[in-house]
């Protein structure tokens, strides 16, 4: 067992000194020379094997390989693929919910500045403008435009393809035709949300982003 020294941060939480040193090392390493002038940028790359200081959890979070589907304790949505988990209390997060940004942007909403919240602000029920589902936990919210996005929806891939690579679907802000799975353009309550649309001229496939998640789960169950 490896022992490490901890100190208390300004919120009274234990913080690993080794983690602090590693982040300081990154800051120094990422100081670059460009146009003859030095500047630096600080980041915590997504996919780090260990997260010591998540804003919503006091224990270290370890990167886990893909396994069975799970429910994310952050956004409360279903999860697939890699995750971050706590070995002490079984807390689990999507990669996107573990590596959160205080301020984020999305090309579909160029006038929106999304701020991260652990739960939706205000008292009324809010829904994600990408998948149409209710916001039950972590969310990116723009106070000026009123748009809301689940962390996973904010960071959806621009394109996905089937396991054989025969069909490629491109992320679209609109639902141009009926979803092949849901048989409607609307997801729920007249909300259209985003979709994945076929890039192939001879294929008119169109799926809500929420339906793509359901298809992934169905495929996993079938093995």
UniProtKB/TrEMBL annotation:
Residues 56-98, 117-153 form the DC1 domain. It comes from the Eukaryota. Pfam families: C1_2. InterPro entries: C1-like_sf, DC1. Keywords: Repeat. This is DC1 domain-containing protein. It comes from Arachis hypogaea. The lineage of its organism: Eukaryota, Viridiplantae, Streptophyta, Embryophyta, Tracheophyta.
């Amino acid at each position: 067992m490896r022992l490490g020294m901890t100190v208390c941060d300004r919120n009274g939480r234990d913080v690993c000194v080794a983690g602090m040193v590693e982040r300081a090392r990154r800051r120094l390493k990422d100081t670059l020379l460009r146009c003859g002038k030095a500047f630096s940028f600080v980041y915590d790359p997504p996919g780090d094997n260990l997260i010591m200081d998540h804003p919503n959890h006091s224990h270290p979070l370890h990167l886990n390989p893909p396994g069975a589907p799970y429910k994310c304790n952050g956004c409360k949505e279903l999860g697939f693929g890699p995750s971050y988990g706590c070995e002490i209390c079984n807390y689990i997060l999507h990669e996107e919910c573990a590596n959160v940004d205080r301020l984020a942007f999305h090309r579909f909403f160029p006038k929106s500045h999304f701020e991260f919240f652990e739960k939706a602000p205000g008292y009324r029920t809010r829904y994600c403008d990408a998948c149409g589902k209710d916001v039950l936990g972590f969310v990116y919210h723009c106070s000026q435009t009123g748009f809301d996005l689940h962390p996973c929806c904010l960071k959806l891939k621009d394109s996905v393809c089937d396991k054989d690579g025969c069909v490629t679907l491109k992320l679209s802000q609109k639902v141009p035709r009926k979803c092949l799975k849901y048989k409607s353009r609307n997801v729920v309550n007249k909300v259209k949300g985003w979709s994945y649309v076929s890039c192939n001229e001879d294929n008119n496939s169109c799926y809500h982003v929420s339906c793509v998640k359901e298809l992934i789960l169905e495929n996993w169950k079938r093995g």
